[in-house]
Amino acid sequence: MELSKIQADLRQEDFQFRLKAVQALHHYPSDVAVPILLDQLIDREFLVRTFIAMALAKHQTDRSFQALLEMMKFDDTPSVRAEASNSLSLFGRVSLSHLVTAFIQDDHWLLRRSILAAITEMESPIELLEICLEGLQGDDRAVMEACIDAMGSLYASPQKMTVMERLLELANDDSWRTRRQVTIALRDFDHPRAIAKLHQLRQDPDHRVIAAALEGLL
Predict the structure, then answer these.
(1) How many domains does the chain have?
(2) Which of 10, 34, 58, 163 has minimal CB crowding within 10 Å?
(3) What is the mean pLDDT of the segment spanning 115-142?
(4) Among the three residues 122, 157, 172, which one is the final residue of a domain in this structure?
């Protein structure tokens, strides 16, 4: 798409034109695309802002990093903040401390799930454990289960004993969903206490927990 048409479409009332214009900027170099994208950050349609967050990840400059950081912190739509966090993570470890801070300060489940997934992929066990422990203190079940699942990936990390101790505590939770998720997370912990707990969970009052424990001991 010609640059003149992109700029014209970005002024269209129908947001579908604006979406396509943002996508078309993927084919332009950063020195052209980034200033135009930054001018659209106040677009009233959250889908356009979401597309902008995705587009900025393709142009890894200082200006796009700062813009994504502000979107993650201040946009009033959770899905935009979540997409901004995902794009920010693609900048690598320079984004790590910002993602951790956002997780702690913003308790919306969508943002937290996005950050959990991103940091899990970044091979940063210290930061991953930090946000997991933070997420477990909240009351959102989906986030708690995602945190437990992520903690299971730390079975070979230097933090494995800290993780295992917390999982063993959660194995006594009142919720069968939590106990089932813990059962799955403990499977890769090659430690007598983890193995003993899995055997114990074979006698759980809930058949879904029992099934998970049996599967883990195969």
Answers:
(1) 2
(2) 58
(3) 94
(4) 122
- Look at residues 74, 37, 39 and name the one whose alpha carbon lies nearest to residue 59: 37
φ, ψ for residue 213, nearest 5 deg: -70, -40
Which domain covers residue 38, as residue numbers?
1-122
Same domain, 79 and 148: no
Which pTM value belongs to this model?
0.91
CATH number, residue 193:
1.25.10.10
C-alpha 141/C-alpha 192 separation (Å) is: 29
How far apart CA 160 and CA 91 sit, in angstroms, is 27
Last residue of a domain, one of 122, 155, 189: 122
Instruction: Report phi then psi at 206, rounded to 5.
Output: -105, 130
**Two tokens at 151?**
């903690």
